[in-house]
């Protein structure tokens, strides 16, 4: 495999990971650590296992078939792909509004720029990437750099907070309680909605398809989950260190409290860098992937894809400046994506065992069985979670 392809596979992994690691990811992790304590480690472990099963199923089927998720779904059942695309775009828009808000908050913390102006600057940076002729390659490099920056800073804060490592390890395997809402929200926020398709669609756009690249696809998919999970684990440890000492967290901005309580003023500024980096990469991933779900149905969107992506970012920014309310929106978006996941993964699994779509390819039985279990589990937990979360959004 040549250097360019290796870089694309790595870029796809980081695009998926940084699409997941946005303001909602940071907020959800801290909020659930505050409510569950060390037992949140079990939730993370469970979600990682589910995430890997989802990611491997989805990426393998798309790459072998050489088709995007919506096109596969339409072959399984006419109109299904169109419906999925609508849900993905709406979910992506909801996440992107929160992402833009998170970027504005990052600028506020880091440089003292008012959040609304910071949101506009962040939108401008994201848009600039898609004004470049080879936007895909620039996007790959940008998300890799930002992803590594986030990892380094969060590891520093995690050790600065001095968490109870032994308790965290014990409760990861023997939790005090199991919370379905946190599990479905984490899975929905990591591989739900548009996120699980981001890296896979990037590989398709780069022309990396067929059975010959399956080993690299598997490695890339697992790498993406590993990067996102590494960030989640160290953020959990950082929050646990603060919570276990009984230090207060600001309900309006829980992640910022963790960083400032763990490392003082320096930690607060580092939070600004992490929030800004996470938000901008998520804006890019959300916009890119959401538009990739509609370009199959429109020739003009295919021809002017980058401009449509720019329009998606601009629309998200306008809605944020007008509406706001990022924290509630981010929690609900994670739960909604968890409910979308059974539909999208279910259609992928049906395609995996349909010869007219997959040809001679034989999908591993264990992946099919695991995927079916995830579909059933997420359908049940996703419905329950959405029912629980909807009243809170309108309070």
Automatic annotation (TrEMBL):
Keywords: Membrane, Transmembrane, Transmembrane helix. It is a multi-pass membrane protein. InterPro entries: NRAMP_fam (IPR001046). This is Divalent metal cation transporter. The chain crosses the membrane at residues 36-56, 76-97, 109-130, 142-160, 180-200, 221-243, 270-291, 303-323, 329-352, 364-387. It holds the Pfam family Nramp. It comes from the Bacteria. The keyword Nuclease does not apply. The keyword ATP-binding does not apply. It is found in: Membrane.
């Amino acid at each position: 495999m040549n250097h360019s392809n290796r870089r694309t596979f790595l870029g796809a992994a980081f695009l998926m990971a940084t699409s997941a690691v946005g303001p909602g990811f940071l907020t959800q992790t801290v909020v659930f650590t505050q409510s569950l304590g060390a037992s949140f480690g079990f939730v993370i472990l469970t979600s990682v296992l589910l995430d890997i099963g989802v990611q491997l199923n989805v990426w393998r089927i798309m790459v072998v078939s050489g088709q995007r998720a919506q096109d596969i779904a339409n072959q399984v059942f006419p109109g299904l792909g169109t419906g999925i695309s609508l849900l993905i775009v709406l979910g992506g828009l909801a996440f992107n509004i929160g992402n833009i808000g998170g970027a504005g908050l990052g600028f506020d913390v880091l440089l003292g720029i008012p959040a609304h102006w910071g949101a506009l600057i962040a939108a401008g940076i994201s848009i600039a990437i898609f004004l470049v002729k080879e936007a895909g390659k620039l996007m790959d490099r940008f998300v890799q750099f930002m992803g590594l920056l986030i990892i380094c800073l969060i590891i520093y804060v995690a050790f600065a907070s001095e968490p109870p490592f032994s308790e965290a390890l014990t409760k990861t395997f023997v939790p005090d309680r199991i919370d379905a809402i946190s599990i479905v929200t984490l899975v929905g926020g990591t591989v739900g909605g548009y996120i699980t398709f981001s890296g896979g669609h990037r590989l398709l756009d780069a022309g990396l398809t067929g059975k010959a690249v399956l080993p690299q696809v598997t490695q890339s998919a697992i790498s993406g989950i590993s990067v996102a999970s590494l960030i989640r684990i160290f953020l959990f440890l950082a929050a646990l260190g603060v919570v276990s000492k009984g230090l207060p967290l600001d309900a309006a901005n829980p992640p910022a409290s963790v960083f400032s309580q763990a490392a003082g003023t320096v930690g607060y500024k580092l939070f600004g860098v992490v929030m800004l980096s996470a938000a901008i990469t998520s804006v890019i991933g959300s916009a890119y992937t959401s538009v990739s779900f509609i370009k199959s149905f429109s020739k003009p969107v295919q021809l002017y894809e980058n401009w449509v992506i720019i329009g998606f970012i601009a629309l998200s920014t306008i809605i944020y400046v007008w509406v706001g309310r990022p924290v509630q929106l981010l929690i609900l978006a994670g739960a909604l994506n968890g409910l979308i996941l059974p539909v999208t993964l279910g259609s992928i699994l049906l395609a995996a065992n349909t010869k007219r779509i997959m040809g001679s390819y034989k999908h591993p039985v264990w992946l099919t069985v695991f995927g079916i279990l995830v579909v059933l589990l997420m359908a049940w937990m996703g419905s329950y979670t959405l029912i629980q979360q909807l009243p809170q959004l309108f309070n």
